């Protein structure tokens, strides 16, 4: 059985997903939908996709589509995932799956009512380097994990009309890249958060240009997470235990993990040419074939928790989007 995919949105992230999909063995992208017919046709031609549509609604009428990858800006995720679910299509939705946890509740309920697979595309969790790092932790290579330090920052296009700086498109550092740091902390500690402290600086458009978050977990673990759209940060995750550490350069798209402890230094390298979106696509294919409603790697409860944490961060820093009630 080959799982048939549609891609909703034909932008930058959709292209990265489609490029990596070339090595996916049990799936086939059969359709792409965009609001622009020219853009949809160009995308289909570039990636050898049979069907190109000039509206999302038209694409969703294709009865052969099993699952849709939603790759539109954050603020549209609720609307577009709802369209897919109402059309009877399973959904892999780009992160953040919704802007806030209240929106997520709507989608989670709808997916359950429709008995459809639904997952947030936190592709980082499926990367071999991240899996190796978690295996080292499980094996006790760094002892008990005490602290996680994460930084992700770059000088982005802060033009008022562009996505990153546009509050109407749910722009800002937290939702765009800060979520990756929170996701790593959640993967490592997987416990209840006891305390949150957050500060931020703001752009002229009113979005968070940079932020710093501290999480304290009930098991004593701590995470320091920095993200920025106005400065190049170190762009790494370091996981510290009482017997060593694990360094993960460019952790969100990790190709390497380095273990350092008192006894050894180990380095894992992922030599595959793909960025790694193929791993989550393979996982989705397998889950749908086995009639699963959600992923055990990114369960819906995990997505809800990450969104709830970001809700609390936004409350602390005073960030609310114009379209939020």
Automatic annotation (TrEMBL):
<dbReference type="Pfam" id="PF01408">
    <property type="entry name" value="GFO_IDH_MocA"/>
</dbReference>
<dbReference type="InterPro" id="IPR036291">
    <property type="entry name" value="NAD(P)-bd_dom_sf"/>
</dbReference>
<dbReference type="InterPro" id="IPR050984">
    <property type="entry name" value="Gfo/Idh/MocA_domain"/>
</dbReference>
<keyword id="KW-0560">Oxidoreductase</keyword>
<feature type="domain" description="Gfo/Idh/MocA-like oxidoreductase N-terminal">
    <location>
        <begin position="3"/>
        <end position="119"/>
    </location>
</feature>
<comment type="similarity">
    <text>Belongs to the Gfo/Idh/MocA family.</text>
</comment>
<dbReference type="Pfam" id="PF22725">
    <property type="entry name" value="GFO_IDH_MocA_C3"/>
</dbReference>
<protein>
    <submittedName>
        <fullName>Gfo/Idh/MocA family oxidoreductase</fullName>
    </submittedName>
</protein>
<dbReference type="InterPro" id="IPR000683">
    <property type="entry name" value="Gfo/Idh/MocA-like_OxRdtase_N"/>
</dbReference>
<feature type="domain" description="GFO/IDH/MocA-like oxidoreductase">
    <location>
        <begin position="132"/>
        <end position="247"/>
    </location>
</feature>
<dbReference type="InterPro" id="IPR055170">
    <property type="entry name" value="GFO_IDH_MocA-like_dom"/>
</dbReference>
């Amino acid at each position: 059985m080959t799982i048939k995919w549609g891609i909703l949105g034909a932008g930058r992230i959709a292209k990265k997903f489609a490029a990596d999909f070339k090595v996916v063995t049990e799936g086939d992208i059969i359709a792409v939908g965009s609001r622009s017919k020219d853009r949809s046709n160009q995308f289909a031609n570039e990636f050898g996709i049979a069907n190109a549509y000039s509206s999302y609604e038209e694409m969703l009428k294709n009865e052969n589509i099993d699952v849709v990858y939603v790759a539109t800006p954050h603020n549209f995720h609720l609307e577009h995932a709802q369209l897919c679910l109402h059309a009877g299509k399973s959904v892999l939705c780009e992160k953040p799956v919704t802007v806030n946890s209240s929106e997520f509740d709507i989608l989670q309920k709808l997916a359950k009512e429709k008995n459809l697979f639904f997952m947030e595309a936190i592709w980082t969790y499926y990367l071999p380097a991240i899996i190796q790092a978690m295996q080292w932790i499980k094996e006790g290579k760094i002892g008990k994990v005490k602290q996680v330090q994460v930084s992700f920052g770059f000088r982005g296009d802060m033009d008022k009309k562009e996505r990153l700086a546009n509050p109407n498109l749910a722009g800002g550092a937290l939702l765009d890249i800060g979520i990756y740091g929170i996701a790593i902390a959640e993967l490592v500690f997987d416990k209840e958060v006891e305390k949150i402290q957050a500060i931020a600086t703001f752009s002229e458009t009113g979005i968070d240009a940079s932020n710093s978050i501290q999480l304290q977990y009930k098991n004593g673990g701590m995470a320091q997470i920095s993200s920025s759209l106005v400065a190049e940060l170190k762009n790494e995750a370091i996981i510290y235990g009482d017997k060593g550490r694990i360094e993960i350069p460019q952790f969100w798209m990790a190709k390497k993990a380095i273990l350092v402890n008192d006894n050894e230094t180990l380095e894992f390298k992922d030599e595959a040419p793909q960025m790694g979106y193929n791993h989550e696509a393979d996982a989705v294919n397998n889950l749908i074939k086995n009639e699963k409603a959600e992923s055990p790697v990114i369960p819906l409860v995990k997505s809800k928790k990450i969104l709830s944490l970001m809700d609390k961060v936004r409350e602390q820093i005073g960030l609310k989007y114009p379209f939020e009630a």
